[in-house]
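Question:
Now give any protein.
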Amino acid sequence: MKLVVVCPHFEPDVAPTGAVVTRLVEELARRGHALEVITSLPWYRNHRVEERFGGRLIRYEDTPWGRITRIHPFPTEDKRNLAGRALSFAGFSLLAGMLGARGGPVHGVLAVSPPLTLGLAGWAAARARGAPLVFNIQDVYPDVAVELGMLTNWRLIAAARRLERLCYERATAVTVLSDDLKDNVSAKV
């Protein structure tokens, strides 16, 4: 099968999500699947693009199992800067969606959240390439931002919740890591 994976991190990035997705891609490749991974340039460790990956908006890497497309994530060094992070996620997701929509038909698209906006990027890729979308939730947004007190504006919360529902509704399947996440997502669909 030909599969597209849209994710926020991938090795050599050190984010835990990157380790999970990298392992998943390796296992799928081992089973003979052709994969296209659309991800960010490594940036998680210091919240800026690692020096050896700097200088370009997009980088391509060919592998024995397919291609990795790495996009500049427009990171903010201050994780508490919610507006900056939202703009970063939006810019990264817009590019990921545009790049994911290019190419021929595939059998499936996997989009990994957070950021929530990758649900839309995955949907754009799936729709353009005639494939079902699996939306994998690693952490539920906007709930996390609300619970941490980072997102308090009721209009922004309502908009984020509409985006969340839209992403769930556009997915052929939604997968989660735990029963708690399953209960949370099930209550919203």
User: Anything to note?
Assistant: The CA atoms of residues 40 and 71 lie 5 Å apart.
